[in-house]
Amino acid sequence: MNTVAPPIALAKLAHQALARGKMALSLAHKNALQRVLSTIRPSNRSAPTIEPQVFEVLQQRIEALVDQDWRDGEAGVYPVELLFDDPWLDYLLTYPLLCLDSFMVWDRSQTGKVYDFNKSVNIKDYPGYYARNFHNQTDGYLSDNSARLYDLQVEILFSGVADAMRRRVLAPLKGGLVGMGRSPKILDIACGTGRALRNIQAALPDASLFGIDLSPHYLRRANENLRTLPNTLPQLVQGNAESLPYTDGYFQGITNVFLFHELPGRARQRIINESYRVLAPGGVCIICDSIQQDDVPVVTPMLQYFPESFHEPFYMDYQKDDMDGRMKDAGFDIVEHQTHFLSKYWVLKKPG
Predict the structure, then answer these.
(1) Fewer CB atoms near the end CB (10 Å): N or C, the chain?
(2) Measuring CA to CA, which residue among 349, 335, 344, 346 is closest to residue 284?
(3) Among the listed residues 217, 295, 283, 216, the one whose alpha carbon sits nearest the alpha carbon of residue 252
(4) Angle CA 206–210–216, to nearest 5
(5) Mean pLDDT for each 10-residue chunk of the chain (352 residues)?
């Protein structure tokens, strides 16, 4: 009779317990903070009623995501140890700062002051669509403090499975790179604080990694997060992905995680076009972003609430956008679609 080796069995139990613990902590934080903030300053908007069946579907989808995360680790897509790669000490030190900042986030969500930046920030250096307080977070993406809070904010928002959603790009990325050489060059567009690059490095330790982002503050944070990696440090560049500073066909792989819902349609198309240009023939591009309105219809009411609550001005346009059409117009072949929890994935190939 086949049995699971005890270390693997224990690791699986630990992974499941960790995932449930992060979900519980995230929910407790959101509920407690909502009560405190609503008491101090009652909201001028009523929250929508979410039907119980929506929560049941979300719970099923998050459990399926956690299970898939384990199976990919067990199958060797990435080391099982990556499932436990959470910066707990940093989160612990950051949490009080996040709670303090939440009062300003709440105030901004009630007043609509979404162009509220520190005087030291020169917003003229950035596209108009970018120079705003996304998520109502202080300084948007344009301060070191914002970059420090970001990873913990996103983990709480996604009930502790933000990294699990990021890791869903790894299996199709590795599969698409078969035959592309031992040391493929991979670009992560809008690399932010470097969490996606950290996952890619664990799955593809021989790859040459590159990242580009508009925010110098988030790139500085990415350098801090990536400097402990055992292999070569990824090459990070500040720049606008609408005009990538790389030659044609330079990369064998490209990833893009949670960017397109924060862009107007014209910028989405330009970045897709640029991704196609810098990808080598036969190369693979994996895009991860929010699910769209027809992907999981039962949660559509919640998706409609999201942009108003978190200041995502282009989210509803993204919801209805023909992303497949944009990718085909750029020249990509669409290999596959996937959805996991609240995220959607496109697996793209450049013909050749």
Answers:
(1) N
(2) 349
(3) 283
(4) 145
(5) 61 94 95 87 69 88 97 96 94 95 89 85 90 92 95 95 98 96 95 97 96 97 91 91 98 98 98 98 98 90 79 94 98 97 97 94
